[in-house]
Design goal:
It is a single chain. By secondary structure, the protein is an alpha+beta fold. The protein folds into 3 domains: about 140 residues, Periplasmic binding protein-like II (D-Maltodextrin-Binding Protein, domain 2); about 120 residues, Dipeptide-binding Protein, domain 1 (Alpha-Beta Complex), CATH 3.90.76.10; about 210 residues, Dipeptide-binding Protein, Domain 3 (Dipeptide-binding Protein, domain 3, Roll), CATH 3.10.105. The protein is built from 13 helices and 21 strands. The strands form 6 sheets. It has a 6-stranded mixed sheet. Strands 1-10-9-8 form a 4-stranded mixed sheet. It is globular and about 70 Å long.
Length: about 500
């Protein structure tokens, strides 16, 4: 039976600004050729190899160069990409993909079944000599076999067999398809997407151009430059100077300043922003302290001060665009109650409060501003939160990989499966950077992954969210709004329920 899961994604990343020396191409002559745009980002790319990229900010750029067997459309439906169709067996143990004929890599080579099998095995850590830098897809651990064959019509068929049922795994087949016999992805990436790689200069820019042999609808633009700024302030100055055309992740104040020169598009980031607490260190090893912090936080004030009221307050580790899997009843599990917060602190032995340090990536202005608001709120119940700004690379190494912090503020994205947004809380997982531990959570998570009964799966994901809420695993703040400055004259900017910047539909309006 065919399944098209509308689940949604998203570790956060910020996008803001651009190259001071190169603005978008706007004159009529260039418009007839498709034109060019400059998009601003404030985070360098951590890898050009799509299987090694960790940061969501890298993946949102590489989305334009690479594709998987399937990809998300703007409504969150998984649609065929390198595969022209797919089926999932009724028992959830077999996925069958029919490959699209004639798909070409950017080096001119035709995509083969061997390329697909290699890519999936690489993502699953199933190669004979695995690359330790590859970010192995943990959900692929249930794969027992990947085979290629010919269908009756002569088309290539990829069959993925699982050791245990999993009807959500389709969301992970966005795993990018790359050439098997090509070893230069880290410097000159080759994919199948609507744009092909041109050049990359660390902390400066990544340039891509339209791939005219793309099998699908061709991109309108000839050239896209993702220009990298060292800070949001620097990026915003470039935006004001007219050196960039698209500037995502605006604050309300910035949007107000730009509205006369840019169209301000508003959508959702589709991620979980939170004050994530290290459950293994004092005082956050005490659930009463974690609950106290939750009661001390006023989420509505954050939405008003930083978002102008846009965005959605959340109560657990999932955001609302997951639809029926999302439990909206938890949104008010911890209403703002300073008296309750003080009572719990007293019960936990912290009647006079305590001091802790929150590590925040300095390139994410929104998270920094959130920290400033939270510090003032927590101060009212006797908690002193010291803000330590760190570079993104340091956050990845020390906080995400090293689990070394009292707390952090970040936004988490996910693949197109509800299990993926909750993977950060599995006991013993390297991705569990808050060191949350619950045997009940782990058991329910494994059952949710394995069941093929939709009603039971929905019920289990609701129970998982309640586990995180009851344990006050962290302070789950919001799924923030996304404000984007788009140069007047540009059309086709599209919001997705996943963390991407899709440039294929963007074009300059003809005059």
């Amino acid at each position: 039976m065919k399944k098209y899961f509308a689940c949604f994604l998203l570790l956060v990343s910020a996008m803001t600004a651009l190259c001071a020396c190169e603005g978008g191409t706007k004159d009529p002559e260039d418009n007839t050729k498709g034109g060019a745009v400059v998009v601003g980002i404030t985070q360098d790319l951590d890898s050009l190899d799509p299987h090694k990229a960790v940061a969501a900010g890298t993946r949102e750029v590489l989305y334009n160069i690479f594709e998987g067997l399937v990809k998300s459309d703007k409504d969150g439906k998984l649609v065929p990409a390198v595969a022209e169709s797919y089926e999932i067996s009724a028992d959830g143990t077999k996925y069958t993909f029919v490959l699209r004929s004639g798909v070409k890599f950017h080096n001119g080579e035709t995509v083969t079944a061997d390329d697909v099998v290699y890519s999936l095995n690489r993502c699953a850590g199933r190669l004979e000599t695995p690359d330790p830098e590859v970010q192995v897809v943990a959900a692929f651990s249930v794969i027992s076999d990947i085979t290629a064959s010919k269908g009756s019509d002569g088309k290539d068929v990829i069959t993925v067999t699982l050791s245990t049922p999993n009807t959500e795994l389709i969301g992970y087949f966005t795993c990018n398809i790359i050439p098997k016999n090509y070893d230069n992805q880290a410097k000159s990436p080759v994919g199948t997407g609507p744009f092909k790689f041109v050049s990359y200069k660390p902390m400066d820019s990544l340039v891509m151009e339209r791939y005219d042999d793309y099998y699908g609808t061709k991109a309108h633009l000839q050239k896209v430059t993702f220009s990298i700024s060292e800070s949001t302030d620097a990026a915003f100055l470039k935006l004001q100077a007219g050196n960039i055309d698209i500037f995502p992740y605006l604050t309300v104040d910035q949007a107000e300043q730009l509205k006369d020169k840019f169209n301000i598009e508003v959508g959702s980031m589709s991620l979980v922003q939170g004050l994530f607490l290290n459950n293994a260190v004092k005082p956050f090893d005490d659930v009463r302290v974690r609950q106290a912090v939750n009661y001390a936080v006023d989420k509505n004030e954050i939405l008003q001060m930083l978002n102008g009221g846009y965005g959605t307050a959340i109560g657990s580790g999932m955001y609302s665009t997951f639809g029926l899997y999302y439990d909206s009843s938890l949104e008010n599990a911890y209403p703002h109650d300073e008296a309750k917060a003080k009572q719990l602190l007293q019960e936990a032995g912290y009647a006079d409060g305590f001091t802790f340090t929150v590590k925040v990536p300095s390139n994410y202005t929104y998270h920094v501003q959130t920290a400033e608001v939270l510090a003032n709120q927590l101060k009212k119940v006797g908690i002193t939160m010291k803000i330590e700004l760190i570079e993104w690379a340091t956050w990845l190494s020390d906080v995400y990989k090293g689990h070394n912090c009292d707390a952090t503020i970040i936004g988490l994205d996910s693949q197109l499966a509800p299990s993926d947004i909750l993977k950060y809380y599995i006991g013993g997982s390297t991705k569990n950077f808050i060191n949350y531990k619950s045997d009940d959570f782990d058991a329910k998570y494994n059952e949710a992954m394995a069941t093929v009964d939709t009603d039971r799966k929905v019920a289990l994901y609701h129970e998982l969210q309640k586990c995180l809420s009851d344990d006050a695993a962290s302070v789950f703040l919001q799924s923030p709004s996304l404000m984007v400055a788009v140069a007047k004259g540009l059309t086709g900017y599209t919001f997705y329920p996943v963390y991407v910047q899709d440039m294929a539909s963007v074009e300059w309006a003809t005059k």
